[in-house]
Write a structure and sequence with these properties.
Largest sheet: none
Strand content: under 5%
Structural class: mainly alpha
Number of domains: 1
Distance between the termini: 38 Å
């Protein structure tokens, strides 16, 4: 069972640092941790399910405004 810190590390590496799961698998392997990519993917999916209520709440707040600005550069 992964800790919250490990899940946060995997998610931040994947989405903020753009580090694919196969590279994370290799990094963990070099550290002596055999965590298959399929396991990492399962954790990412489970985190997504748990974070969905937050996504929904944020969407609601954003869409309450008449104008929404994004910078997609």
């Amino acid at each position: 069972i992964p800790t919250a810190g490990l899940l946060a590390q995997v998610m931040i590496a994947k989405y903020a640092d753009h580090l694919p799961l196969f590279r994370q698998e290799q990094i963990f392997g070099r550290a002596g941790l055999a965590i298959p990519r399929s396991t990492l993917a399962s954790w990412v999916g489970a985190c997504g399910v748990q974070l969905q209520p937050l996504v929904d709440a944020l969407r609601e707040v954003v869409l309450e405004h008449n104008v929404v600005h994004v910078d997609e550069t």
